[in-house]
Amino acid sequence: MIDFNRRRMLLWAATAAALPGLCAVSPARAEDTVKIGLILPMTGGQASTGKQIDNAIKLYMQQKGDTVAGRKIEIILKDDAAVPDNTKRLAQELIVNDKVNFIAGFGVTPAALAAAPLATQAKIPEIVMAAGTSIITERSPYIVRTSFTLAQSSTIIGDWAAKNGIKKVATLTSDYAPGNDALNFFKQHFTAGGGEIVEEVKVPLANPDFAPFLQRMKDSKPDAMFVFVPAGQGGNFMKQYAERGLDKSGIKVIGPGDVMDDDLLNNMGDAALGVVTAHLYSAAHPSQMNKDFVAAYKKAFSNRPGFMAVSGYDGIHLIYEALKKTGGDTNGDKLVDAMKGMKWESPRGPISIDPETRDIVQNIYIRKLEKVDGELYNVEFETFEAVKDPGKTKK
Ligand code: PHB
Fold this sequence. Notes:
The protein has helices at 4-18, 20-24, 47-64, 84-96, 109-122, 150-163, 177-192, 211-219, 234-243, 262-265, 288-301, 307-326, 332-339; strands at 33-40, 67-68, 71-79, 102-105, 126-128, 143-145, 168-174, 196-203, 224-228, 252-256, 276-279, 343-346, 349-353, 360-372, 375-387. By secondary structure, it is α/β, with parallel strands linked by helices. Helix 10 (262-265) links the parallel strand 10 (252-256) and strand 11. 51% of the residues are buried. The model is unreliable at 1-28 (pLDDT under 50). P-hydroxybenzoic acid (PHB) is lined by residues 108-109, 130-133, 178, 230-231, 258.
């Protein structure tokens, strides 16, 4: 009786003897592989974020290949369902057992924060591709962000509202860190421009029912309501906004663009027409690079890419380019150094990594929701160039 492993070895030896050509192809050596632990919410309320980022990374690797600076790239995808305890456990397993060279993804702020001490301890880059609270990059010198901050868009829409005849605003924000950033930065800029906040409500992050809050919004008779809900929740919000007749009562929706995520727009219906938001990305961004990106993404996944997809696409690009610069060296300090100050053209427009904060510097566009060729799009009409995160604490 020979056991299973011995039988497999004998089989391999027999096959190798019969096919000498096969032996010339040595199996990829483990030390040649660069491993990226990708932690995303693939299930639960934030699953659309996970899907967009995972799709975009697949698309990028399909376009550019899976070898950089002579090293093969391996993605190890883990689903944390946006629960920070899961994120921490998964990051630990990826670092200790799989010996990953990067951790990446992070669909929500609490997940990005939970992983930060582990990146510091392991001295490996943590590439934040979704979460948007300003403090995140301050939590580890190994964090580099390719997504956005809520402060970037909320300050700009605050100024715009005050300058464009909006006097009274009611706010509705998701009750966790990025919602608080959105609210505080909007309020600062809108009130400095002479605006008044007439009602402030915070809604739970998990499974929010907007209906009771929308009645309060309506009763406070604002000119507009400022809304931040994370990616994936905008469709449900706009449905309840229309059901409560807020679109008919002349209360405009303004905010950062998360509520108008591209992959949800076509299900929102005409109630969303005219919504003005400030954001980093629209699928209608008129560059050739974006047209090609949208076409390739749609062909591969039968859906429109949103801002999370672009943040993932740029995140994997950053990793590829950093590896090229280090010549394939995976030393974490060298990789982070290589990323600092990097500049490139993204489907969203020109972007760079601030060498001091390791945060993204990008254009913020003001957009209006319009119908173009029968489909709903955020049409950009004003650009603020190379916006740094206004939310960094001054040292
Ligand atoms: C976050 O948790 O930081 C976050 C998630 C989704 C968004 C924006 C911010 O759309």
